[in-house]
Every structure is written in C-alpha cells, then in structure tokens.
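[agent] plan:
  1. take the single chain provided in the ticket
  2. run structure prediction with default settings
  3. attach structure tokens to the ticket
  4. add a short note for the reviewer (M.T.)
[agent] executing step 1
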Amino acid sequence: MKAPALTLVLTAAMFGSAPVDAYIEEYPPFSRQETSGIIGVLLPAVDADHARYSSGAVRVRLTKDSLLIRDGRRTVVDTRRHGLDTAAERPVPVEVYHVDIDGDADEDFIVHSWYGGTGLASLTYRVDMYLRQTDGRYARVQYETLQPDGRDYRDLDGDGVPEVLVTGTYFGKEHNYYTYHAYRVRGGRLHRAVGVTGLPKYVWMTTKPNDKDTTLLTPREREAHSRQVDASIRTAPPAGSAGLGRPTTVE
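[agent] step 2 finished; step 3 output follows
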C-alpha cells in the first residue's frame, strides 16, 4: 500500500517532529515505508509540559487536579478533581487537542485520559471528543483506545479531513492480536471509514516486531470483532443535555 499524503489543514493545532508514543511501536498499523511520506505530527494544545492554551475565545487549563475547557462563556469541560489515586475509577486527563476533526470548519476538542494500572491495562486510555455544532454546543463521543497521540488523527484517504484510528486487542482461539480500526467523524458521531486501504488491521503479537495484517482470521471473525469495536463507541447529546447515553451502533 502506498503511504497516503498528509493533507490535513489544522488551523488551531500545533505540529512538530518530536518522538511520540502512539500505537504499539513493535506492532504498528503501518510499515515504515507506508508512513515515510507523512511528515507532520499533531501535537496537543495542553499536556504535562504545556498547562495552558488559548485561541480566540477558547481557554484550556490542565493541572494535576483539574481540566477546564471554555469556549467564550460556554464551559465545555470542568473536572472538579482527578488524580492518579482515583485513576481506576475516573481516568486522569493528560492531554487535549484542539482541531477540526470532522471537516466542518469548527474546531473541536479531543481529551486523552489515562486509567492507570500495570501491564497491558496501563496502555488503555479513554478518548472524549467534544464536537462543536453549528449552534455552539458540543456533541460528545467517547471510546477506549491504546496509547493514543496525534498520529491517531490523520488523513488516510486524501480528502483533506482526518480519520480517527482506534487501537485495541483481539484474543483469538490460537493467537492474540493488536487491532486497528479507522473511523470518520460526521454529524457528531463516529462512522466506519469504509475504503481506507489496509484497515481494519489485525497484527499478530509475535515474539518479534510485526506490521503485517494476519491471514489467520476469517472474514466472519474480523467482522464480528469490528462490530464489537463499533458498539464500544458511545455518543451523547450536545453539552448541557443529560449525561452520556448508552452505546450506539456505529454506521
């Protein structure tokens, strides 16, 4: 597969070339050859090293005890308290991205929060997307993924709008796999990114680095697992409405 060109236009995001830790580095979704043409990496607006961010009417502040995101007079996120001691109950926000993730010219917020833990569990993060609507409110999408960063939001099909990469695991009858599924954000929801070359991808957890899609799973097994990933993505009405709703099937 030829590496897709990076054509994103992210007006409020910051780019750089610093090393990052997305994916499971020894079992990546793309080979080095496939990613050789991608030169930009989306960097967070706030993280452990950059506690404050402002752009126009937007203000973001991240401390060890709270995350506050405001858009003018509207409060998008306001956590009263979080810390590593409560990570198992409520994940700790560790970085925020401010980017137009759905191509509607309004910039959205993506919050990565860490659950803590050890072993494979320590790689699991919750992602909360706050998607700005035409009336100024924010719809919310929530899901879990493994070790996310800016490389999870890339234009994979050349249409100028980033896709979203969701990373997980699949434990088969004989082998275990890291999995990569691509989605598009449309209408305040995540939809399967049908037609993205090479995805979904199931990478066998071997004893040596591997970036190949397995041939050991049947189409039925892959589709059944893809439906489970779809069902794990949760949506909610715009901010200011009732809390996060039940999981809904991704289309």
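[agent] step 4 note for reviewer: The chain has one helix and 16 strands.
[agent] ticket updated
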